[in-house]
Amino acid sequence: MASFDSTGTIAPAATKTPLIIGGSATLRPQLWEWIAATIGVPSSEASFQIWMRAATALGTSTAVTPRPKNAISVAGHTAGSNCSVEPTYSAGQPLKALQGNARNQLSWQALFEAAALQAAAAASNGFGAQIQIPGGALTSIDTDMTVIE
Amino acid sequence: MAIQGRREGVSREVTPEGKVVNENETFTCGHCQHITDVGPKQRLDELGNMCLVCMRPCCKQCTFEMTHGGGCAPFEKKLERIEARANARRTYEECAR
Question: May I ask the CATH class of domain A3-148?
């Protein structure tokens, strides 16, 4: 078991994905922690909303190398920031929605394994954080995910 | 609220000064992985129910499906089906080359 952090950013707009995590054919990545915040002074006090969604195709993004917490492990999963082609998400409700003031940091954390989100061991499956309402976010929206594999 | 005596997960909103303005415990549905926020003094049966087959808490939607003939459908079984489909597709593609 190794733990990795990945960071993604994107200019605030509805239905845009700052960070996408993809699985691989040999392992099931587990999402343990997710943090969302905005960078820069917000333009208003309007809340922003961001969804965690299960992806079935990963779209096109700038590759990000997941950072191992032990400094030596190499990730089997993939991460991408600033999606230029949106991933294909499972229809319906998100796995988790976070919403709050654009000045604040929003987070969700699993406290034990049964609560962590799992993706299938298939290269095109994973998790994405998708902005739904940019609200007062002005410069960019930043999201971090901790994945254990 | 704790499920089986344990806190499952937590969601927070923290101000730039480090003050927690909103904190909720959460549980992850054992059938679909939907994460449900648990408000103060809310009971599990207001938010879903416990599946007595896989012994995991379930969201409202999955509880509805269970009580209307859907039965227990653990998320691990869904993952296995997705992986089997992906493996079969990869095998066909390799044979076609």
Answer: mainly beta
